[in-house]
Amino acid sequence: MVAKRIIFTGRVQGVGFRFTSYHLANRHKLNGFVRNLPDGTVEMVVQGQSDDIDGCIKDLQDSFAGYIRDTQVEEIPSEAKYTDFKITF
To answer: CA angle, corner 68, sides to 79 and 8, nearest 5?
Structure first.
């Protein structure tokens, strides 16, 4: 199991990004959360199999191709506290 923190920049707030992220993360059987940040970006922390995380990121990039300007991905330590995927505020 791996964990990654992803920051999406562009026009990613107010376009259904978190809702879509929630559904895609569940489809890929990932745990973690997604939230809007005050600077207009969206942060997503996911845990699961590396291929599932990569697939989720690709699906999001495909779904929001005209909205995402940049995607920054960093590997982080996994945490047992993530047992499902949530939209947080």
So the answer is: 25
Instruction: Give the catalytic positions in this structure.
Output: 18, 36
Domain boundaries, the chain: 2-87
Query: Given its phi and psi angles, is residue 21 left (phi above 0), alpha (psi -120 to 50 degrees) or beta?
Result: alpha
**How many CA atoms are closer than 13 Å to the CA of 36, on its beta-carbon side?**
14
Q: Give the class (CATH, top level) of 2-87.
A: alpha beta
User: In this structure, which amino acid lies at residue 48?
Assistant: G
| CB neighbourhood size of 37 (10 A) | 13
The 3-state DSSP class for residue 64 equals: coil
Whole-angstrom distance, CA of residue 75 vs CA of residue 14? 27
Nearest alpha-carbon partner for 22 in 49, 59, 65: 59
Q: Alpha helix locations (H) across the chain?
A: 17-27, 50-63
Mean pLDDT by 10 residues, the chain (89 residues): 97 97 98 98 98 98 96 96 94
